[in-house]
Amino acid sequence: MELRHLRYFLAVAEELHFARAAERLHIEQSPLSRAIKELEEELGVILLARTTRSTRLTRAGKLFMDHVPRVFAALQQARDSVQAAANGFHGQLRVALSDGITPSRLPGLLALCRQEEPEVELRFFEVPLSQQIKGLHDDLYDVGFAQSDEVGDRVVAMPAWSDTLMVAVPARHPLLVHKRIPLDALLRYPLVLCDPQVCEGHAKHVERVLRRTGMEPLIAERVASCDLMMALVSAGFALGLTGEAHISTSREAGVVARPLASRVPPLTTYLLRLEGDPSDEISRFIERVKAIQSPESPKHRPDSPGALAP
Fold it and tell me: Can you give the pTM of this predicted structure?
């Protein structure tokens, strides 16, 4: 089995059309068909069911498709590791990010890593939570951050830091008469929320909060980033619901942060890793995560520039 067989199979599996896959690969259709047949003969199974009208993955093809992208991911990581070594790094830590990361935390963490262990290269991967968990099991990532501790077996979720859940309100909105916004009042207006496919942990937390009233929220839009959420709020399109830090660091004018009237759990970001004794590099990384959440950290005092005014 050659890498070209896997690359050709991946193209056909994604396109489900031999002509389009051949065009994407910049080859003729006949060598593509021949390569797929060679792969099927080597594996002893039919991967693609073909008719004159359609191409579809068989059950074996779907199972094989689950593994092929990881082969290319592992190969790319091997290339990156070699390149990092050639550039003078003596180690690498692969960090997955899901649900976004609290804006005030990442710069401080990166600065501390560069200061204390500059010879270790940090590589970041923004992926959905389900992909992060799978990647931890498959040794594609060493650690990760997500706003959920529902991570299944063999993954440890350690609370890293918390952020107050706040309402992002357009300037001059009627709800600004409230210093603390009641949930039932909030749900009378359209909301822009994070997409659960992209920000699974964040979306589940917000959904649990909104379910407290028994009222059905009017969701105007689902977005993949807090930046777009703030832009829509600033334009008066809807209200947003996210962490205080995301609102306070937003560059959009005309967005006001208001807390909720009822007590709700904060948005907690968890550090995820596989069970077992962590490596020395992962242990030192965990200690730095703990250090940046320390009350003594100057970046996180209430009077720091990124903090919201009371």
Answer: 0.68
